[in-house]
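We emphasize that the prediction below concerns an isolated chain of 310 residues; any contacts that depend on oligomerization or on bound cofactors are therefore not represented. The input was used exactly as deposited, without trimming of termini.
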Amino acid sequence: MRYAVLVTGPAGAGKSTFSGALMTHLATSKRTAHLVNLDPAASPDSFEYAPSIDIKDLISLDDVMSELGYGPNGGLVYCFEYLLRNMDWLEEELGDYDDDYLIIDCPGQIELYTHHPFLPTLVKNLNRLGLRTCAVYLLDSQFMEDKYKFFSGVLSAMSAMVNLEIPWINIMSKMDLVTSSSEDPAGGTQRYLEPDPLLLAAPRGQDDANSINPKFHALNQAIVQLIEDHPLVSFLPLDLTNPDSIESVLSNIDYTMQYGEDEEPKEPRDLDEGDFMDMELSSNELDKLQRTWRSFLKLKEHRASRLIDH
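Result of the prediction step, given as a token string:
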């Protein structure tokens, strides 16, 4: 079974940095992982690890803009349309990776996740190729400094979740930058990790924006009602300076994708066949292990014969 993690989120949320940190953590854990770049505008210097699969080997945004005269957004849309028309290229690139962890670094244009059909179509093709997929959506922790900006991020995450229809984890990135000034005194960061719609539900007259424009208050109330009716979004805090934080996020990703549940149990190694010869044991220790193992087998045979006699 192959596994793919789509790293999504708005520009500047730390997707490439998170992908690199996840690659490092997986390597430390003796797990095989490969980086896949799906951003045709990405600079090679932006990656800590060289991508094993790079969409720029198929098409790049610079080429589209120079040859077709498209702008950045139109060029990106064209690149993804071209990728979907050439899925055989991606299938061939993915063919060499079996039982591996693929970390797919996606572009930062939010419209690709919220309403364009490109990523949902890509996910369906990945599932067809036998990849078990999930997505992580990164939101910059600095959004918590402005509650209106934060809830726009919550709504974007909700829209992307509904659009992609795959197992999903929302991550509040750059938590190492959060200071006391970013926290709401009434509930701290927890009111943002588990979005509390009451942050927007300030009574009229107690909020500057609401008092200036009553329609703004009505809009806030509608958003509050939407979030209360559909409590889909919650965030895991991510502090890349803390290995335990990365491990917590990875554990949630593994659980979401049911990582390893389809793996066949490994056959126990046999002392008599020399499977333990590569262990760093002295000859005396190895002889002792083998004698113990043979004694165990004889005892097992003796007990079996006694059961037969009875």
